[in-house]
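[job 4417] fold queue: 2 targets
>>> target A
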Amino acid sequence: MAKTNSFGIALFVVASAVWAHAVLAEQAPSDPQAEGNANACGISISAKAQPLAMVALTITSRCLPDEQIILHHSGLMFSHKTDAAGIAKMAVPALSAKAVFVATFDNGDGALTMIDVPDADQFQRVALQWQGTKGLQLHAYEAGAGYWSDSHLSLQTAPLDLGSTKANDRFFTKLGTPDIADGFHAQVASFPNKDSGETQAIVLSVEAEITDENCGRTVVGEILRRNADNRSNGQQLTLYLPKCDAVGNFIVMGKILEKLEASVE
């Protein structure tokens, strides 16, 4: 399946391919031997709800070891890979209380699963996604905080830890396997909803480190936002990076969304 920078188009093509594959399977004539081989090489995806509106996914594809997968969920997409046994495991922030996850392989095969995640309504979530090794980063600043202050939040300062992160904590999640060339990547920021306590404003920004791979190029990403009222929307971001004599520096796109109102303890 050809990859594309258009996340909406890619999702439509993938969904169509999965549906067509399912229809063809239903219309195929019954053959016990063929059915046995199909079961042995079938693809399955299971989901289990975790705390903090996270979902643990397990993809099993015994005949597709060390293969690339693209995961889709409510407009979010990121790349992963099966291990030598054809299994892939990951934890994904739910962007919907009725969560649907679709996994597709490069050969067009795939599977989907649905799961109820009631506590997804307790969080506002913002995702930054992009394709390739562009080095994009999502940052959040509480109440006018400065860079690397105590109220500057990012994947480095507030990573998800299911063992210690509390329901009223802000946290960041990283999605995507870095060693897949031209793969899809995402960072997701999670904030408790404003009706769970006192609120304060949070400002979001996107940063890109200038590297030998991306200097002098145009970097395109997408922001997806799941609001407190259960609506979601997306917007494309375009960053024009300086020439290669600026390698090692960062470019910042500030105030990418209107201020969020997130709860505090």
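>>> target B
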Amino acid sequence: MASGVTATQRQNKLRQLMAEKDIVRVMETHSGLSGLIAEKARGPGGEAFDATWSSSLTSSTIRGKPDIETVDTTARMQIVEEILEVTTLPMIYDGDTGGHPEVFHFTVRTLERLGVSACIIEDKTGLKQNSLFGTERKQQLEDIDLFCDKIRAGKAAQVTDEFMVIARMESLIAGWGEEEALMRAQKCIEAGADGIMIHSKEKSPDEVLSFIEKFNKFPKTVPIVAVPTTYNSITEAELAAKGVKICIYANQLLRAAYPSMMTVAEKILAAGRSQEVDSDLMGVKKILTLIDDNTAK
């Protein structure tokens, strides 16, 4: 655990941020190093990320495996621990479908023990296909009553009041339409979901904003989560104005790393030496001192 931060303090922080801020800004992390980047990065006005996202996609990709739940929960938890050990930010965990309710019970218990603040599970079933494939791949939605059983199992498993189970609606991705997404969201709220994530692969935010507008008219609502990967022209401020409480940047750090590493590798092959890539690299001394050595006094 990072110095001065307990699991309980970290876990509680996300709800505190949601109460204090118009929108909570979350960055994907897939390693201890990417966790440090997410924590240390600052915008020109001192802007910072509020939390981290442990992504199934990036956790699979760094192991060279497809995003079809080939990386099991035990391996995923190892990545989570590596990130939590060197950071202080709260974390949201990408739980894919969550598995069977009996399995999700223990996933929640483990995440709570580690100090993770929330788990998002999606209402799909069968062999996982990444949502950004949309209808190019078969996206099979879970029976909504069975999915709600999973939410109830997760809520029953948690020990603290602070942990959150968030339901991810995949109806727009699967081509089932807005009305189906709204119906499912309503049932998930009734089952005890602490938040609703609405997902879309469209380049325009219009279908997400339409869903949110109708969702906000529900008699009972919960916080909305958005992941503007494809519809990335919309700003955090615009999302917040529509009622979005959490904005997740779900895969950008890993997507930035891959082309940079490939470019360096190809330049070395072309030159037969590494001098030509010096301008592309962090200095050796800087990387040696990048990580604070807390044991050195």
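[job 4417] complete. Note on B: Residues 59 and 258 are 14 Å apart (CA to CA).
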